[in-house]
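Name: NADPH-dependent 7-cyano-7-deazaguanine reductase
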Amino acid sequence: MTSKPEKKLEVFANPTQKRDYRIHIEIPEFTCLCPKTGQPDFATLILDYIPDKKCIELKSLKLYIWSYRNEGAFHEAVTNLILDDLIAALKPRYIRLIARFYVRGGLFTNIVAEHRKTGWKPLPAVLLEEFDEQSNTRK
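Structure predicted for NADPH-dependent 7-cyano-7-deazaguanine reductase:
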């Protein structure tokens, strides 16, 4: 059965609602069309979110992202539209979407959009010391 692009985002219950944890997803093959020229625009999307009660189902995310392939959209608009749809589906504690559009005419465009659930605050960061890389073989 062939998959087809669609705008429906499916979710599932967060299996660990009691803890803040980050889900990181990289989408290196995002494509939409320039609304002025009709030429394809390519981007890598970087999605980071801290779920509340729901997590995104990855196949539905892939089909959702694919649905933009033949749509004209300015970089700023499509990034915020995708984020709005993810917020509506997930209602996450925190979410950030970075869209890194590839060079066109000598210009790179990076769009960063984020959202925090009202009242949610991250725990203080724990910075652990770093260790030099070690080899598992003897010299």
